[in-house]
Specification:
The complex is a heterotrimer of chains A (425), B (274) and C (296). Chain A has two domains: 185 residues, D-Maltodextrin-Binding Protein, domain 2 (3-Layer(aba) Sandwich); 200 residues, D-Maltodextrin-Binding Protein, domain 2 (3-Layer(aba) Sandwich), CATH 3.40.190.10. Helices cover 44% and strands 13% of the residues of chain A. Chain A has 19 helices and eleven strands. In chain A, strand 4 and strand 5 form a beta hairpin. In chain A, helix 10 crosses helix 11, helix 12 crosses helix 13 and helix 18 runs antiparallel to helix 19. The longest helix of chain A has 18 residues. With 274 residues, chain B is mainly alpha-helical. Helices cover 74% and strands 0% of the residues of chain B. Chain B starts with a helix and ends in a 5-residue tail after the last helix. Chain C has a domain of 171 residues: Orthogonal Bundle (MetI-like fold). Helix content of chain C is 72%, strand content 0%. Chain C is built from twelve helices and no strands. The radius of gyration of chain C is 24 Å and the shape is flat. The chains are: A alpha/beta (425), B mainly alpha (274), C mainly alpha (296).
């Protein structure tokens, strides 16, 4: 036994020899190269914009070079973690809002409060800034932002005898609309779904479910900041979800991608999504553009509408030797001029006041106007490394009361135990 | 007798449909427009036949480059695996030592460990060897996965070759290595071909290593490239995904058509005797 | 045999092993040891590394107390056993069918092997596409054959999700099993059957007394490969269900991944992997022993 243990120790020693190979990095004097890990840079349609962004930035800053490291959306977080653990962290990281807590609590990303300066930071809408704050500091800059807005198909509204220019304000209203919409049939004779809400087993769906909780006056924390999911708001939200399932308004356990597909082909009347999600629907059906309406999150049970912040963030690695340069790049990429260009390829909402002020086209875009005041709906979510698992637990609860056939109270009990266990609170 | 015949025909038919229909579906989907892909009832024959997806797949060289890289990595893995496992298999078959038995068991048992649990440590090793972003890193990690099983198979072949042949060669004065190269290797060619094909297929299938160790598009292999280019955040471009898949699967099919004969022959020659 | 020759043999035999030892040892064995080691420590995937502290099996205790480990083992075993048994039975049937008659039908055999040439990532996408609830072709076919009345959300329904993944796994693995067994069948001397038939044996008797015993070895090795493949199955689950719905497809591989890379608890992820390594090693030892005993 002793021998085996010795053997293990020795091989581990050999491992760490491997691991300590070349820790010291040569400090180069020439131009600084910033590695930017992102999934957006290689996606169809965006490549040209990013090449231009790189060229513009390098022209304005001859001493800084940008190197794009593209990874698939689903792999980027794991990849950055692996690289950072090997001491090769990229300098700038594009991140999904739901990964933010992992990166911050893991200590991987730099405090940007001083790096970017208070003028820049205070330009972010206060509700959004509030959601980014961890103990008073911020570690990420919202690049693209959005709440879970409601999209609706005006053509289908007309067919169902609804006024295409009037969006629902509340869940109660939306359910009435959904009833009418679900009477419709598409060209092939399939039933049209009335109201789509994602519940698939991915973290982003958990954010959507939590937004639904918020909008019904619920949430996962009570007033004193303790985990408590057993409340009337959440009960009402799950009841709405259950009704949507039973009346077949909502496709079962759909991921956002499924909802976008169905919306694109006219088999879904209304659904909740991030603003840029519509890009996916347009990719399938470009003719859809003229008939899409959008509105802010709905109110349920008379509560104030609310949503999680959905955002692509820009983070700077704590290990980066060139944090100043990275901050410069972030400022450049989020400048009103660059954001206007980026916004013309893919729709999203601007998270900074200055950006909005300098983009008249944005403030008058009929696709934006109804949700221009979106920051008011953003609710701050607890920052905890386990947050992604909490989101997954939320989808489990949503699946439980629908396809699982479990009662709402039982599902909430289970969710409460799980979230308490995860957040250790 | 007639009933038996019918049962055979029906079973063959059902199996055939189960195995081939998904591929047919992949193929025809790649010839549909994106709007038609989501139609229900689905179109079993494309109504608005289009080759647009293929055109845009071949509009730049990236997909061809992914394929090329995949061939290089898989071929490299196959060669190294065959060499290493032929040597090891021969050792385990002829020079039975306690050490060999230990090696055999530990090699095999490592195969049971999930790759997601290894990837972190492997990245550090390749980083320190300066191999991140090289095809060599993929070849080495894939070989580590394929060698153990190939060794066991090859050992099976060698066990079947009568020892008297080598003894004769040794008495004639040939060295151990010479005996191995000139007597044993030629006799086990069919088996080597079969194992080579098996290894190639294993390597071709890799996704996790390629996505982790390769950071630049120019060195990516097929599965990783597909994920990178076509499995976007907001949607999967199905027409493109299917078109790329068809492009990527075709060379495999050609390979199977050419080599399946050797596969059966090779396995028959001895490996199956274990 | 002279002593000198014996030493030479030992040296030569060891040298032959070296390349394999170096590659497998360096790129799998050491990382495995490292992970096993971490499974006993509070190893988090954070930037600032806390000093490694032996945490007295805390990682394992946590997994067992929350029931996650047992649950994942249950799901993984269920999946593995069903897929292996189905693949084996279908593989034998297919091989018997293809071994009929004299024609070595190259085209037929190659076609049967095609799914094997399809990368697993594509398999996962293809089957999730076909299983889609609203526009999936499987629902269409089943509805039209009047096997089901309502479309089924195969990957979303907790009762069907794991079996849908199993279908995709079977599809990919069946061809390899088939070719292995076909090779085994062609190894059986024809005279055996002729002799048995003269003695008046039925085809079922032939199958039980000649075919199966001859196939024992090929079945042993290919089933072991199938067991390991399915135990390790990650890409199919990750792409098709991601562990959902309601955790009904949260296998050991998914649990490892989630712990290591979702909540950065690498020690716990390593503990899952280690527990499974131990179980598989015991299993394969027992497996080989059982087969050996059957042999004699």
């Amino acid at each position: 036994m002793k021998k085996i243990f010795l053997l293990i120790l020795m091989s581990l020693f050999a491992c760490s020899m491997f691991a300590n190979g070349n820790k010291e990095k040569a400090v180069s004097k020439g131009p600084v190269t910033l590695k930017f890990a992102s999934w957006s840079i290689q996606e169809k349609g965006a490549q040209e914009y990013f090449e231009q962004l790189k060229a513009d930035f390098e022209a304005a800053n001859p001493d800084i070079k940008i190197e794009f490291n593209g990874y698939p959306y689903g792999e980027l977080k794991k990849q950055v973690l692996i690289m950072a653990n090997a001491g090769e962290s990229p300098d700038i990281i594009q991140a999904e809002r739901s990964w933010y807590s992992s990166f911050v609590t893991g200590g991987y990303v730099a405090d940007l409060t001083k790096l970017l300066g208070s003028d820049y930071i205070n330009d972010i809408y206060p509700e959004i800034l509030n959601d980014m704050k961890v103990d008073g500091s911020i570690y990420g800059i919202p690049w693209k932002a959005s709440p879970f807005v409601l999209f609706y198909n005006k053509e289908l509204f007309k067919k169902a005898g609804l006024n295409p220019e009037v969006a629902p304000k509340s869940y109660e209203e939306a359910m009435m609309f959904a009833e009418k919409l679900s009477q419709l049939k598409d060209a092939d004779g399939n039933q049209v779904y009335g109201l789509g809400q994602t519940t698939g087993a991915v973290p982003v769906s958990g954010g959507a479910v939590l937004s639904m909780f918020f909008s019904h006056g619920g949430g996962i924390m009570d007033a004193s900041g303790k985990v408590n999911v057993i409340n009337d708001g959440n009960r009402a939200a799950l009841q709405t979800l259950k009704t949507m399932y039973e009346k077949r308004y909502n496709p079962e356990g759909a991921k956002l991608k499924d909802l976008r597909n169905l919306f694109a082909i006219g088999r879904l009347g209304m659904y909740f999504d991030q603003l840029w999600g519509m890009t996916g629907a347009y990719a399938i059906n470009p003719d859809l553009k003229s008939s899409v309406g959008v509105t802010n999150p709905l109110s349920g049970n008379g509560a104030k509408p609310g949503s999680t912040l959905e955002a692509h963030l820009l983070l700077v690695s704590e290990d980066s030797p060139n944090k100043e340069a990275a901050a410069k790049f972030i400022k450049f990429a989020t400048s009103p001029e660059q954001m206007s260009k980026y916004y013309s390829i893919t729709p999203f909402l601007l998270p900074m006041k200055n950006q909005v002020a300098k983009a008249p086209k944005y403030s008058s875009d009929p696709g934006i106007v109804p949700v221009l005041n979106y920051p008011e709906t953003i609710r701050s979510v607890v920052k905890n490394g386990e947050m992604e698992n909490v989101f997954l637990a939320l989808t489990t609860a949503a699946q439980a009361v629908t396809v699982g056939g479990i009662t709402i109270d039982t599902a909430l009990e289970a969710l409460n135990t799980e979230v308490k266990n995860l957040l250790k609170n | 007798m007639k009933i038996k015949k019918y049962i055979i025909i029906i079973t063959t038919l059902i199996m055939g449909i189960f195995l081939l229909f998904p591929l047919y579906w992949l193929l025809i989907t790649s010839f549909k427009h994106n709007m038609d892909i989501y139609r229900f009832p689905p179109q079993f024959i494309p109504v608005n036949f289009t080759v647009d997806s293929f055109k845009s797949v071949f509009s730049d060289n990236s997909v061809l480059n992914y394929l090329f890289n995949n061939v290089i990595v898989s071929a490299g893995t196959t060669i190294v695996t065959l060499l290493a496992s032929a040597l090891a298999g021969y050792s385990l078959s002829r020079y039975k030592t306690k050490f060999g038995t230990i090696v055999q068991t530990s090699l095999l048992s490592t195969q049971m460990f999930p790759i997601v649990g290894l990837i972190l440590a492997l990245y550090v090793i390749f980083k320190n060897m300066g191999l991140i972003n090289t095809k060599l890193s993929l070849v080495l990690s894939l070989c580590a996965i394929t060698i153990p099983f190939s060794t066991i198979l090859i050992k099976g072949f060698f066990d079947d070759i009568p020892k008297s042949l080598e003894e004769a060669a040794r008495i004639d004065g040939a060295s151990r290595l010479r005996t191995f190269v000139s007597v044993i290797i030629p006799l086990s060619k069919p088996g080597m071909l079969a194992i080579g094909l098996y290894t190639f297929m294993q390597a071709w299938d890799d996704f996790l290593f390629a996505i982790t160790f390769i950071l630049k598009d120019g060195n990516r292999t097929l599965s990783a490239g597909i994920a990178m280019k076509f499995l976007g955040e907001v949607s999967y471009d199905w027409a493109m995904v299917t078109a790329v898949s068809v492009t990527g699967v075709l060379p495999m099919f050609v390979l199977i058509f050419i080599f399946q004969k050797y596969m059966v022959a090779g396995l028959t020659a001895g490996a199956v005797k274990g | 045999m002279s002593l000198k020759q014996k030493t030479g043999d030992t040296i030569f035999g060891t040298i032959l092993l070296l390349p394999s030892i170096l590659i497998v040892g360096g790129f799998i064995f050491l990382p495995v040891l490292q992970s096993v080691f971490y499974s006993f420590y509070n190893f988090k995937l954070t930037r600032r590394k806390d000093p490694l502290i032996w945490n007295n099996f805390e990682n394992y205790k946590n997994l067992i107390d929350t029931g996650k480990l047992q649950n994942a083992f249950g799901i993984t075993f269920k999946f593995m056993i069903v897929v292996v048994v189905v693949v084996l039975i279908l593989g034998i049937i297919m091989a018997l069918l293809m071994n009929q008659g004299k024609s070595q039908n190259r085209v037929k055999r190659s076609l049967a092997l095609l799914p094997w040439g399809t990368p697993t990532v594509i398999v996962a996408l293809l089957w999730s596409w076909m299983f889609q609830s609203e526009y999936g072709v499987v629902n269409f076919i089943l509805l039209n054959l009047h096997i089901i009345k309502e479309p089924i959300s195969f990957l979303v329904n907790p009762d069907t999700a794991i079996w849908s993944v199993a279908v995709a796994a079977t599809w990919r693995q069946l061809p390899f099993m088939f070719i292995m067994i076909l090779a085994g069948l062609q190894n059986i001397p024809k005279e055996m059957y002729e002799a048995a038939t003269i003695d008046g044996a039925s085809s079922i008797q032939n199958f039980l007394h000649i075919t199966l015993p001859f196939l024992r070895n090929v079945i042993r090795s290919s089933v072991l490969v199938a067991i390991i493949t399915n135990f390790k199955q990650f890409p199919l689950f990750w792409t098709m269900t991601g562990g959902g719905p309601m955790g009904t497809t949260e296998t050991l591989a998914i649990l490892t991944y989630k712990n290591a890379f979702v909540n950065l608890n690498f020690g716990v992820g390593a503990a899952v992997a280690t527990a499974w390594l131990v179980v598989l090693i015991i299993f394969s030892l027992a497996y080989n022993k059982i087969f050996k005993e059957v042999e004699y």
